Fold each of these.
Amino acid sequence: MRLSDLQSRVNLPDIIAAECGPDAVRGLSRDRGGAICDPRPGHEERHPSFSVYRYGGHWRWKRHGGDEASGDALGFLLALGMSMGQALEELARYAGVSLDPWQPQRVPPAPRGPDPLGEARAVLDRLSPLSLAEMDRATRLLAFAGRQTAAGHDLRRRGLYGWQGLQVGILRRDFSTREGRMLAHAGALAFFLNGPDGQPWGLKVRNLGTAEDLQRAGLSRYVYRIGRHGAPAWCSPGYGQGERVLIVEGELNGAAAGLALEGRGTDVQGLAGAGGVPFLEGLKGKVVYLYADPDAAGAACLDRVGRLTQAAGAREVRVMTGAGADFCDLLPTLGRARYVTFLGAREGMGKTTLVTALAWQMTRPDGRGRFLGQPVAAGPVLYLNTDAADGESRPVRYWLEQHRQTFPDGDMSGITVLESTGAGLTPDDLGELLNMARVRGARLVIVDSFMGTFPQLDGNKLEQVMRPMMALRDFAAQTGAAVIVTDHLPKRSAAEQEGDRGIMGSTGKSAQARAVHLLTRVPPREVEGREVLRWEVRKNSFAQSGHAFGIEVERLEDEGGRAAGVHLNPCELPAEEEGRDTRGDRARAAVIAALTAKTGQTVPHAELIAAAIAGGNVKERSAQQAVREALGALGEQVKEVRLSGRGAPRAYRYAPQVPEQEEGVLVIEETPELLTPPPAEEEVLTW
């Protein structure tokens, strides 16, 4: 029997279970395969990245990341440490045949060099846009991703919430296989993968939660909700019209880059992981930029995609080098050169502590400054303090002195502190200030705060805030300096968290800034009495990846109990309570209960308002918000009707949809072995 016939008779999931134990195949379908943790000795992992799948009638496996190894059933047995003879005997035993009649295959001809275009086209030929019926089905599977949903929070911290270039929603219900194994949970983030033609080519779902939570639940991070469409890349709106192309590892990373580069003549593709294949359209004759995660899988991705894009006719291929982070993490830092950044917080939260820490690090010898673990270039700093109640800058000078005691190699002369005259700045005064900064070669300008600097402006009116914001933005772009503007947060209302509404005033301020950072204080009882600040990047043109992070303020004292310095240490935040019970939550629950209790019946809008007021003990305005959020959560299961009578009052009817038969799913499209070329002898990225 030929080896290929032997391979076609065995079931790789069965072999893995027999050789490595039943726990090793947890979450693996015997018929369709799936993704599990690598069972090979010495390659253990915590997150599933070992794909098992059928290809060409035979079972195959591939490790995504790690050593990027792949193979067939025989290769898996060899990877367990068996000799070739032992592996063949075991393979024959699993196939249920005797090894005696096996005949070796004819020695194949020497393989030719890899054909990047042919290999890519073999994968791309299996891709296709969603049909009208599939699009209709997809929209029925999804509900609106509200700001307060877990998916909404995930999008907000990435800076992608509300962007029209990324079509998103949340799953209305759990997604399971016919055997009952859950693949995605209700409320998971779902986003369409638009192709180069602007049409959706796939629907991908991101299960939310920590890696440990997903592992305990037996869930993969990503699944495809509409099967049999492969793993297409995400393409930015208007793809094909740009002068250059950026290809990024990860679809959401691509969306973050697409948002940041919107209107700048750059097309963006976000690949389906390090093994993803880009579309070939729009590459010929253009400069192609590549970015991948700084790990072994990312390096292999750059090498493979670089060869492919060059073969597709790219005029030039350039690699973007990052700072050891995911693309979504490239710009999460405070004070990005050439841009304006907002830092918002309530009074007394620690804005001055943070911005003076950054300013002081810039006065240290070049190469020694570090802010929250990140290197900081040295340069002159201009600090405009208009936020002090007495018009003086004692708090600013106090914190600079504390940082000087902690890092004595800094130079106080590197920071110019300007104090308020009490009247703020007129547009002409602002122009003089920026000219001063330009003459002094300032690398950082801190305006503390917007309200104190421009008290004559109505911060709620767009036309009034635009002039100083445009001046600051133009100054940053022309000089290459970073501009940090501190501002205040509005008073927190009932049923909302601190900072939910962003900084005070017109959204035009945030729109003109490259990033908006919010600072709040963690209750001391949640962090064992320590002083911990919660830093959240609310807006960032390249988006943020990961949760908000904590900063512990460690105040140093001398033997006499006097202040002797301060340390700012990044730290973990306490886990957020999943079951927090606010008045807004209770109001929304009361509205949903009022609708579901009268399934099929008409419920007047006024009755829902009354239910929200009674259930959440909130005022009418908050009750109206609770009704809107409850209706958004129920989605198309609620129909709006108009009652007879004066004004045709609104009413709603709750009619839950009957769950439809689920299709099979493709769990993170596997990459055939032919897409992973053997390691090149030359240096990576040399084509």
Amino acid sequence: MSDPVFDAVDMNGDGMLSWKEFYAFIQPLGVSEVDARHAFEMIDENKDGKLSRKELAKANAHYYFDATPSKYMHFYGVLDLDDIIQAKRTMSKEAFIRAKLKRVFAMKDQNGNGKVELDDILIWGRKAAQISNIDFTPELEAKWTKVYDSYFPHGVGQDIEKWMDNVVSFSKLPNAVDITQDMSDPVFDAVDVNGDGMLSWKEFYAFIQPLGVSEVDARHAFEMIDENKDGKLSRKELAKANAHYYFDATPSKYMHFYGVLDLDDLTEKQFDPSDLCLSPPKPVLMLMRALNRFLPSFLQKKTSAILLPNDPIELYTVPFNTCPYSARAMIALIELDIPFHKIEVPFKLPDKSGKSYPPAWYYDLNPRGKTPTLRLPAHDNKIVYESSIVTHFLCDYSSTMENKDAHLLPTDPFDKSKMALLNDHADNTLIPSIFTYLMGKEKDNNSLRDKMEEGFSIFEKALEESGGPYLLGDQFTLADVHLVPFMYRMDVALKHFKNYEVNKEKFPKLLDWYETCRKRNSVYRAEFTSGAIIENFRHFIEIDYDFGGLVDKSSE
């Protein structure tokens, strides 16, 4: 790997690097003369005052691949190990949020099955009522049901990782704390048992004690939340503290909302000296990335973790990834093993005019105001949007990561053309026919259903020709990625609103394909609950939404 470096730096071509040549190489990277001299003497093993090709290569390789501290870690200047350890002990912002979330999730998992379901929240509510010496009435049960819907909408508590992903994504919004304070309203209503619009110490402790919080810790939390020190908690005070607990990315007083949180315990869990990573300075990364193409392919793969950008791609989507177009992007990211953060944009649901608006700041990322959008921090924050463009971009991008094990594009040109035709058919024929049938009036049901099934027949035929299990055969490709998010939504929504199920006798291969796709980890992670789909589409049906022009209203 160092040969191109050596050849570029050996100015006089004598096959050795003098101190002057070495310093000319390393100084532009910001290395001081003192540090450079230290590095030169460390690399010069035979102490002849010059560096051979072998000496440079050995030291450079050790710098990149030594998993534990050694003298070679000073190749690009003296590296302070204490600084690195301290940096590792400092939790990343995301790790800090996740640590808090895991803690509170475990508290609310009352039956200990690794999930937070409605039953867990109702157990919590019954315990709170018992502590308060009141009956757990149907009215109170309804209030605690709203608590569950507020904290774990659409049943997301079934999967802690998915729930944490959602909260972390939301925490990245610049105004996350402000726009989520009403999340605590159902809690306040359930806990304010005397209905005076304030929470007494007794009411607050009855709320938090069932989660395993000691009286001492609960008292500390109460006094922290009570900002005006009047001995009671207002709705606003509770909401503010609760929102800060969930979304603060750095330690603050609010981290003690659910009892005193020992930061040392959290950081210890996050730090393992064996995970010490001696990353090269950014200028060195830039140089080495440029030289990476000279490496044999098997070495390129080994160095990719060091040489490739560490900043993950940002995927902007709607809350809980309900948008099928965004689901395409998420499936592709997971399939291609590309690191990413999911950021949920708080879109307003369409009104009766059919317009749906993202917040104003989102138009700076995507002038069309739609999802998905990708932002690439490691590449000058470049932006990519529109789902079909995004998925093709990700395939190209993954090739730069030397990720040879993951492909979503067929290599055969005929298969590529088939994929393009299937995707065109999905976008321009099948998907519009699905939404048109869903939104159609009763008198149009048969004709609209028949038109939709004509769309299914194209994919049934493709599966017959390819032999399955996927649309192009053995390989899961963008043809599958393109269609499966819509099939999932159709499956749930049409069963509920139209009492329609895809005919097993007419479309056996299509249904087998659908079940096969749903077993893939990427597809599962990009799905959301059937209850959320039904509620979304219920709203769309009520306002006679046209899905941005997808619904053909000419038959009305």
Amino acid sequence: MDKMEEYIRSLISMENSGLIAFFLLGVLALAGINRYANYRVIAYFTSYEMLNNNNYAFAVRRLGLMIGFGLSIGSALSYPTFTLETLMAGLGSLFLIGGMMLASFELSEYFLTPDKNNNIEIEEGSLNVALLEASMFISTGLIIAGSFSGEGSWESSIVFFILGNVVIVGLTPFYTKSITGRSGAVADNLGSSIM
């Protein structure tokens, strides 16, 4: 019986419970972002109804969100040990990641397609806008993963996140102007949204 008690105590130690709590908070943050994305896309439809109506644009946008969030959470989980201090830093970084992903959600609508309402385009099934937003989420996840995987502080992570998104948004006119302009990604030109 002593070995069983020792095993149970090792399972509920501070290190393991911190990892479990961090994982559960990650799931909670993902559910919150998912809820916000549902509300922003369309307030009166649920994601099940959108996918049930074969709205592939909604599915592509959601896939980009999940991949980007998974990349950023993976970098936040790269702490070597889970003591109380690293757990608190991890919780702070988790909420910071959620805020960064929501900022990316708004950035993609404001800068990449300024002349269109992305939510209406997604509702109508525009795969072009969905690919643009999915790529923005994935690139934001990669930027967050890079900024959190360094050995700097959380302030440097925020600075690198902002600089990475400034570069992405700043380069947008250069590679879209050579194809068809910014409006080409919305005007039934799937190739320009892939570029």
Amino acid sequence: MLTQPVAGFPRVLQESSTSCSYLLWINRYTSALKREHFMNTSATSIWASIAAFFTSKGYWAALAVLGIFMEAVALYYQYVIGDPPCQVCIHTRIWVAAFTLLAIVMCVLPARKWLNVNGHVLAIVCMAGLWERCKFLWDVENRRGDGTCEIFLNFPDWFALDAWFPAMFEVKTLCGFTPMMPLGITMAEMLVAASSVLVVISVLALGLVIRKPA
């Protein structure tokens, strides 16, 4: 940037060059501020969209679709691939069925904050129970700990799901290795990863619902 006249160079051109330098600097600074404002606005808009989704009935609808899909995959591996379910596999199916039914009920109930809070608390319980069973299944598959399972579900008569819905909840074999899934990972590994993500999402959704104005 020119600050002093240069001998032999017209003063008007020097002043013009200095003014252009100032204008160029101001233009660059303004552009940087606009980019920063755009990025901040975009980030805020994206976060607002995420928060709006987690606190809407669309979240529960997506959760219901996910649960139905997971149950369909389990039945596909049982009846098409030929991999019978063990006791812990049935436990995971029950937890998946629980959050699926919860999601369907929440889609029907009116959008009241206290109902949403209780629904999300129950969702966390379901996801935590699902994660615990998936982790137990993974431990059995990798021979960690002293985890074992039985050939019967051993539920009380008032909750005999294996007797009421044997095609879905009847134990067929002892725990062992789970079938391979796409990407070269086992079903137990896939379930641990999926349930971990669901726990995090459920906690996040509860926090957003609590912060949302009534």
